Structure to design on (259 residues):
C-alpha cells in the first residue's frame, strides 16, 4: 500500500506504519523523504480509518539525520528548515492520533529530532540517540530544542546538545523518554502488539491529551521552531559548519575555530 519513493507505508487494521527506506545511507533525511513523511502524517490526520502512526527504519538505523551529501552546506539552513523540516515536525505533532517511534537503530541529529517528535518511543536493544549537531558546528533543530527540554530538563538537555553524547536504549528508558526496550527476537511481534493496543485507544482522548500536554509548556512549538531556524541560519553560514561537513566527508577530526 505504498506509492512513495523514500519510504514504505503499510496500513493494517488502523495501524499505519512508515518504514524509512534509504538504508544505504542509514535512512538519512533528504527533501524527498521529509516531504513524504509529512504527506503521510497529513493523510493520516484526514483519514477516519487511521488510528495510529508508527515510524521505524529499514536496515541497521532508524535515521542518521540530514543527508550531508545533498549540498546542505551551501544553503541558507534557516530557509531549509522553514521549507522542509519544520512543516514535517508540525504535521507529526499536530496529528490528532498517537505517533509511535519504533527506534530500531541509531537516531542521530535530525533523526533524533524525528524520534523525539513521536509521542511514544520504544527502542530495540542496541539502538541509541545522539544530538550530533554540535559535531559539525550547528545548533539543535527540527524541534529538538523543545523536545529535549520537555523530556529531560535544562541541564541534561544542555549536556546532550553540547556533547553529542550517545544515549543507549537502556539509558534512554531510565531518563524517561523511551517507554520500552525490546530484544531483536521480540521486535516485530512486540511492535505489532503495541500498534494494535494504541489502535484500540480512544482517538479523541488521545488527541486531547496530545494537545493539552503541548499547551502546558510556556512556548508553543512553532515559536521554538522559528527560533531554531534563525539560529540555524546563522550557524549554517559559519566556517565551523563548512569545516564540520568537510571533516565528516573526509573522515577526519574537525578543527573548529568558533567562527
Amino acid at each position: 500500500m505504498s506509492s512513495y519513493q523514500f519510504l514504505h507505508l503499510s496500513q493494517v487494521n488502523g495501524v499505519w506504519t512508515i518504514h524509512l527506506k534509504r538504508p544505504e545511507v542509514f535512512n538519512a533525511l533528504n527533501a524527498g523523504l521529509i516531504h513524504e513523511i509529512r504527506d503521510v502524517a497529513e493523510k493520516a490526520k484526514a483519514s477516519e480509518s487511521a488510528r495510529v502512526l508508527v515510524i521505524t527504519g529499514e536496515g541497521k538505523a532508524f535515521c542518521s539525520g540530514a543527508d550531508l551529501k545533498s549540498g546542505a552546506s551551501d544553503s541558507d539552513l534557516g530557509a531549509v528548515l522553514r521549507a522542509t523540516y519544520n512543516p514535517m515536525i508540525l504535521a507529526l505533532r499536530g496529528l490528532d492520533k498517537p505517533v509511535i517511534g519504533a527506534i530500531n537503530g541509531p537516531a542521530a541529529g535530525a533523526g533524533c529530532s524525528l524520534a523525539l517528535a513521536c509521542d511514544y518511543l520504544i527502542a530495540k536493544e542496541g539502538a541509541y540517540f545522539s544530538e550530533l549537531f554540535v559535531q559539525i558546528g550547528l545548533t539543535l533543530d527540527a524541534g529538538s530544542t523543545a523536545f529535549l527540554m520537555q523530556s529531560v530538563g535544562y541541564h541534561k538537555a544542555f549536556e546532550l546538545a553540547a556533547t553529542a553524547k550517545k544515549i543507549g536504549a537502556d539509558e534512554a528508558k531510565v531518563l524517561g523518554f523511551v517507554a520500552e526496550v525490546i530484544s531483536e527476537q521480540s521486535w516485530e511481534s512486540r511492535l505489532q502488539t503495541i500498534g494494535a493496543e494504541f489502535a484500540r485507544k480512544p482517538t479523541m482522548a488521545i488527541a486531547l491529551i496530545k494537545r493539552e500536554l503541548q499547551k502546558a509548556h510556556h512556548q508553543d512549538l512553532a515559536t521554538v521552531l522559528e527560533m531554531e531556524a534563525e539560529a540555524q541560519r546563522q550557524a549554517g553560514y559559519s566556517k565551523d559548519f563548512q569545516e564540520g561537513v568537510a571533516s565528516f566527508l573526509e573522515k577526519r577530526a574537525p578543527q573548529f575555530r568558533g567562527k
Notes: The chain has one domain: 1-184+203-259. The first strand starts at residue 7 and ends at 12. The chain has a mean pLDDT of 92.
